Amino acid sequence: MLFPSDCSFYKYVLKNGYRIHPISQKLLDETIKHPMRKMAASADEVAFFQFLLPLIQAKKVIEIGVFTGLTTLGMAFALPDDAKIVGLDVSEEYVNIGRPFWKEANVDHKIDIKIGLALESLDQLIANNELDSYDFIFIDADKSNYINYYEKSLQLIRKGGVIAIDNTLWSGQVGDESITSTTLTSIREFNNHVKDDSRITFVVLTVCDGVTLVKKN
């Protein structure tokens, strides 16, 4: 997170910056109890995607890294009834936490989960000739594969479609070269890769832990 949990400014945003559906709140409360809760997107980030998806008239979405499905649920609320989210995750256990909430919200018919390695699932979508057909792709998985996820996503996203990549500022540590780790190296390499990519237009937002938005030219 870019802002500490006790930051009065961020507390204000979390309280007054958006509305959260009661079922999303229940899943958020359940997610917060999980020992791996830091893997989840923040509520303000989910609200941002809920605002964004109708603006780009999204109907076909890929989520790379589902965890408990908090973001999945938020996006499903924002999509029309005939939309589809393809959720990719390696853990059935994590995904099963969200399933009852998707069902309670009556959005489970919009969600298609594929359990397995995300790169292989993306390759299958490419092999199924789904190139240039998705409106929005959210990448929030292992950072070592960010460039690989991004390159495959560029094949699947339509012209004018948006790819969102999470954690690209990594608690603000990306700018401090004295801090090194395998994860930080992967994120810095990814950020440079995007910056130098003439195929896209992009912006980095200080939402949650840093969100990069990429539009395919």
In spatial order, strands of the major sheet run 3-2-1-4-5-7-6
Q: What is the CATH domain class?
A: Alpha Beta
Class derived from helix and strand content? alpha/beta
Largest sheet, in brief, is: 7 strands, mixed
Number of helices: 8
Query: Between the first and last Cα atoms, what is the distance in angstroms?
Result: 30 Å
**What portion of residues belong to β-strands?**
15-25%
Order of helices and strands: HHHEHEHEHEHEHEE
CATH superfamily annotation: Vaccinia Virus protein VP39
The CATH architecture name reads: 3-Layer(aba) Sandwich
**CATH topology title:** Rossmann fold
The rounded Rg comes to 16 Å
Mean pLDDT value = 96
DSSP helix fraction: 40-55%
How would you describe the shape?
Answer: globular
Structure summarized in a few sentences:
This protein is of the alpha/beta class and 217 residues long. The protein is built from eight helices and seven strands. A seven-stranded mixed β-sheet has the order 3-2-1-4-5-7-6, with helices on both faces.
Describe this structure as you would to a colleague:
With 217 residues, this protein is an alpha/beta fold. The chain has a single domain (8-216), classed as Vaccinia Virus protein VP39 (Rossmann fold). It is built from eight helices and seven strands. It has helices spanning 8-16, 22-32, 43-55, 70-78, 92-104, 118-127, 146-156, 182-195, and strands spanning 60-64, 84-89, 111-115, 134-139, 157-166, 200-205, 211-216. It has a seven-stranded mixed beta sheet, with helices on both faces. The longest helix is centred in the C-terminal third of the chain and has 14 residues, at 182-195. The protein is globular, with a radius of gyration of 16 Å. The model has no long low-confidence stretch (mean pLDDT 96). Belongs to the class I-like SAM-binding methyltransferase superfamily. Cation-dependent O-methyltransferase family. One of its GO terms (biological process) is methylation. GO terms for molecular function: O-methyltransferase activity; S-adenosylmethionine-dependent methyltransferase activity.
